[in-house]
Structures are given as structure tokens and as C-alpha cells.
Amino acid sequence: MVFGIGDCLAGQAQQEKRKCCIPAVNVTYLPGWLMAMEGLEISALNEQAKPARMVPKLEQFPARTSDLIRFADLDPQGHVNNTVFATFFEAGRVMLLRAPGNELNWPGTTSVLAQLDIRFLREMHWPGTVEIGTGTTRIGRSSYTFLQAIFHEGECAGTADATMVMIDAGTRKARALPPEVIARLEKLRLR
Description:
Distance between the termini: 46 Å
Number of helices: 5
Mean pLDDT: 81
Structural class: alpha+beta
Strand order of the largest sheet: 3-5-6-7-4
Helix content: 10-25%
Number of strands: 7
Strand content: 25-35%
């Protein structure tokens, strides 16, 4: 339902008297307190469907490594600090990207992190270890994206989408992925 600003604030009759031209505003963009004052229904705004969250399994990842949860990784709440998740994801990527003989280390290039989107699914506590899974989900012209997951005590504690860009080591500009790198990234597709 769409109302003019005057309908909500001054009433329909006053707006018609003034003959002013006020742009229409969609009710869904009005503040909740204003909608409540006007007796408008707001429950429909909160009934949007949430997308189903798919939690990956460690077996789906072609590349895996482990790391140790250190006491220093804890925050005042006693669980692993959220910033440490990024460090664990980095460890998973570095182990893959820097592996000897890995075709992802193309001569004269390096890969840089362009975006990291982390979803925190559960707490982790010390002491313990984590398993980090990494797999390719997207291959572009000069970039590629890994889906990564951290597993602690057999449960997925967090996931991340890490977008990497291959750049020329000398010019520091994006460079097209060589066919050999694309072939290797295809082998690393998430199962």
C-alpha cells in the first residue's frame, strides 16, 4: 500500500486542502514507530523468507589442512575471537597456494585477496585443533573464488568466500589466468 507523506503525517483532508504535490512513499520504508502511530500493519515486513543455509561437510573439500587453536586466540568471552577465523582461512589458502609444484604459483605472478566474506556458525574453544577445507567455486578471467570452511570437533564453525586475483608480480596489475592455472582450479572444485 502506498501513501503520500501527508496521508501519514497530516491526514488526507489536509493534503487535499493544501493541493500540494508530495511524492508517494512506500509504507515499507517508513520507520516502525511512525507506522505504529498510524495503526499500519508492520508484521508483513518481518515475514520475509530466509534463505536455507547449506553447511558444507569436510569431505566436500579437495584441499584440507589443520591448525592449532592457541590460548592467545581467545577473547574475553572465552571463545576463539572472530578475527582468528580470518587467520585460519588464510592458513588454508596459503597451504594451497604455496604448495611445492602447485600450478597456482605461476612464474612472474602472485595471487592477492580481493574479498573475504565470513559467516560465523558456532563458537570454538581452546584447547583444540581445526580442520580447514578449501575448494574452488568460481573461475573468472583473472580472478577465482574459494569456498572455505573451518571444522572444530567435527562441526562446521564458519565458512568464507575468498576471492583471489592473479596479478603480474612486476606491474601489480591483474593478469589473465593461464590455462594451466585454470586446469588446476578446475581440479580443486568443491565436491
